[in-house]
Amino acid sequence: MQAFTRLDAKAAPLPQANIDTDQIIPAQFLKTVEREGLGRGLFFAMRFDAQGNERPDFVLNRPEYKGAGVLVAGDNFGCGSSREHAPWALMDFGIRCVISTSFADIFYNNCFQNGLLPVVLKADEVQALMEEAKGGNHVASIDLEAQTVVAPSGRTFTFEIDAQRKAKMLQGLDAIGETLRAAPDIDVYEMRQALAKPWLEEA
Amino acid sequence: MRPMPGKTLYDKIWDAHFVADQDGESIFYIDLHLIHEVTTPQAFAGLRAAKRPVRRPDRTLAVADHNVPTEGQGLGVAAVSDDEARLQLQTLERNVKDYGIEFFPMGDVRNGIVHVVGPEQGRTQPGMTIVCGDSHTSTHGAFGALAQGIGTSEVEHVLATQTLRQKKSKNFRVTIDGEPIPGVGAKDYALAVIGAIGTAGGTGSVIEYAGSAVRALSMEGRMTLCNLTIEAGARAGLVAPDETTFEYLKGRPAAPKGGAWEMALPYWKTFFSDDDAVWDRELHIDASKIAPLVTWGTSPEDVVAVDGVVPSPEAFESPDKRAAVTKALAYMGLEPGQPIADAKVDVVFIGSCTNSRIEDLRAAAKIAEGRQVAAGVRAMVVPGSGLVREQAEDEGLDQIFLAAGFEWREPGCSMCLGMNPDKAPPGQRVASTSNRNFEGRQGPGARTHLMSPVMAAAAAIAGHIADVRAFL
Ligand code: SF4
Fold first, then answer.
1. For ligand 1, is residue B416 a contact (CB within 6 Å)?
2. Which fold has domain A6-172?
3. A24, A176, A187, A202: best mutation site toward chain B, by most B Cβ within 10 Å?
4. Across the interface, do B150 and A35 touch by the CB < 8 Å criterion?
5. How close B8 gets to chain A, by Cα (Å)?
6. B152-161 vs A105-112: helix axis angle to the nearest 10?
7. Which pTM was predicted?
8. Full 3-state SS string of chain B
9. Which of residues 74-113 of A touch B (CB under 8 A)?
10. Cβ–Cβ below 8 Å for A84 and B151
11. Radius of gyration of chain B (CA)
12. In the β-sheet with B18-22, what is the strand arrangement from edge to edge?
């Protein structure tokens, strides 16, 4: 996983609730065996019209938001399908941080597997940030170590994040490698279970 | 000293699978890992790159479902015309072979939608932990198994370690009591729950369904209910196992046999919530008050009774929701105040992991029998697995559907998601038994109304959304 420590980047406002992972990356882009390249399908129906032309009014198509690294979105971002292609597409497009009042569980979890930082702020804070992002200056700073978001105006918000998740993301740790440190515990568990539930061993 | 409070079913499954604590996170064991072609290629690539083996190929089962065409499956994967889909299917074939994982390939009678196949084979059992790279893994909770959807990185994690790292969720009990009116069933219960709590209502929780109306459901009905739990935002859904569960399991290919069955049964019976268990949240629903339901918008929480009208944006308090409703109505091509039953349908889709099991097909066939699909409507029935298809044909259901003008197709996810050849064209209205009515879900620009199999069959006959009660 890519480590996340600090990010200074343009923040793009996407004031819409319940943005589902089908909207983030529609199913026709899931027929890939790679992780890379999914940025081309990001927000496909919002970014492009039926003829495949960019919709000039969609936020990420607007020149002032080109190269945005932060997305400020409405409630319940990432609901729906478990597809990890959603964080992959966001990352491939250059987004490293999504800020919302809430995230769907599976999407939230998937973000931490990839170094995409989901930041939960209170409703009025997201609203304030959204308004600022719509204005002339869009650059926000996100500091994971300090757990702060500094809005373009300099207004600073702090956010909560699980300590373990934070530590792993700061270092970019590989979860499998970590779990394999507990391999002896897994061995013991399996031996006990094989005795207690032998019918599962015959499957 | 005060006695310890009782445990919920979820607590018990969690405790039984706890392996170790590591840096404040729990590592817990996964009994069954279901995999399919779409969310695994990158996981296997990761394993290969790190030279890691699959820890328990025997606890892993693979199917091909999302990408498969629903006709011509006998021609084999080489005949799949979409290059990318074919490559994905071939990649799965290679991966299961390299790692020694049991696989039901396309065309095998045992193949089908992953959440239909697991239970049907008896792989899904009470008290288990089950994961799959698919959000509707919640389906398997119908057996009293903790079943969760995961992303591809976690698929790789489970392949490599047979465990998952997680923090515990909250306990949420939904009690559904009372006698439903005819024409109302599990799909309506599920839509009623989502309508009541919203698509984020269950976030951070595991929902256990209890109450007399849930007990009265068949396994198929319970699977429908648990399947849709993810649309309420919850991590998983659960129904405590009972005689209905054991009866369903008995004799299935992977269910324990003989002495093993006698050992398993008392173990399974320990998986229920204690009377004095503590719930973080509770919801009560009276089944007798639920009318047949349909969705009008682009979120599964946009639910209305079939005899109701399309709401107006002004009816909602929050400005965000008002904006979302305005956008949804424009996408759906509906007017505020219009009776939902006026909406003409172009396509009817009976299928998906929500409603493609034998009981769903029987119920839909009862409505279709002796009637005709309305002119101009494309109606399709897609069984959830080859075995469901076979059983339906044994019972003559295919003939009923065909005589009524439905297409009778081969198993797969089909028109549930716009990924394989079964897509609804832009602007067309679909009466669908699937689980998501998101923009573009069934094809770019397609308009989805979620409903039960009997309601979908009624819509096919009427040519518009229709109250199934007039067809009973
Ligand atoms: S039928 Fe639909 S929801 Fe179910 S597994 Fe397939 S694509 Fe997912």
1. yes
2. Aconitase; domain 4 (3.20.19)
3. A176
4. no
5. 21
6. 70
7. 0.96
8. CCCCCECCHHHHHHHHHEEEEECCEEEEECCEEEECCCCCHHHHHHHHHHCCCCCCHHHEEEECCCCCCCCCHHHCHHHCCCHHHHHHHHHHHHHHHHHCCEEECCCCCCCECHHHHHHHHCCCCCCCEEEECCHHHHHHHHHCCEEEECCHHHHHHHHHHCEEEECCCEEEEEEEECCCCCCCCHHHHHHHHHHHHCCCCCCCEEEEEECHHHHCCCHHHHHHHHHHHHHHCCCEEEECCCHHHHHHHCCCCCCCCHHHHHHHHHHHCCCCCCCCECCCEEEEEEHHHCCCEEECCCCCCCEEECCCECCCHHHCCCHHHHHHHHHHHHHHCCCCCCEHHHCECCEEEECCCCCCCHHHHHHHHHHHCCCCCCCCCEEEECCCEHHHHHHHHHCCHHHHHHHHCCEECCCCCHHHCCCCCCCCCCCCEEEECCCCCCCCCCCCCCEEEECCHHHHHHHHHHCECCCHHHHC
9. 74-76, 79-85, 87, 102, 104-106, 109-110, 113
10. yes
11. 22
12. B18-22, B25-29, B163-166
Residue nearest to atom 4 of ligand 1 (CA): B353
The closest CB to that of B419, out of A31, A162, A198, belongs to: A31
In whole numbers, what is the pLDDT of chain B averaged over residues? 97
Write out pLDDT tens, residues B111-156: 999 999 999 999 999 999 999 999 999 999 999 999 999 999 999 9
Task: Indicate if ligand 1 lies below 6 Å from the C-beta of B417.
Answer: yes
The full set of domain ranges for chain A reads 6-172, 173-203
Check A18 against B299: CB less than 8 A apart.
Answer: yes
Measured distance CA(A62)–CA(B2) in Å, rounded: 62
DSSP A118-142: EEE--HHHHHHHHHHHHSS--EEEE
Q: What's the CA gap between A8 and A150, in Å, rounded?
A: 9
**Cβ pair B106, B68 in contact under 8 A:** yes
Q: Report residue B470 as tokens.
A: 């007039």
Q: Please tell me the residue having the least CA distance from ligand 1 atom 6.
A: B413
| Residue in A35, A82, A162 closest to B134 by CB | A82
Residue type, B234: A
Residue carrying structure tokens 């308009």: B447
User: Could you give the count of Cα atoms lying within 13 Å of A71 in the half-sphere of its Cβ?
Assistant: 29
Please give the structure tokens belonging to residue B419.
Answer: 């990924």
How far lies B376's CA from each of B115, B347, B399, in Å? 32, 9, 21
User: Rounded to whole angstroms, how far apart are CA atoms A112 and B153?
Assistant: 10
Instruction: Find the mean pLDDT for residues A154-165.
Output: 96
Q: What is the pLDDT of residues A5-25, one digit of tens each?
A: 999 999 999 999 999 999 999
Q: Quote the tokens at residue B395.
A: 């019972």
- Mutation test residue for ligand 1: of B36, B37, B417, the one with most atoms within 8 Å of CB: B417
Tokens 């424009």 belong to residue: B330
In short, whether B353's Cβ falls inside 6 Å of ligand 1 is yes
Tokens linked to B29: 């064991």
Length of chain B: 472
**8 A C-beta contact, residue B320 and residue B313:** no
pLDDT per position as a tens digit, B66-110 = 999 999 999 999 999 999 999 999 999 999 999 999 999 999 999
> How many CA atoms, within 13 angstroms, populate the side-chain half-sphere of residue B257?
6
Report the residue count for chain A. 203
B115: Cα separation from own chain's centroid: 7
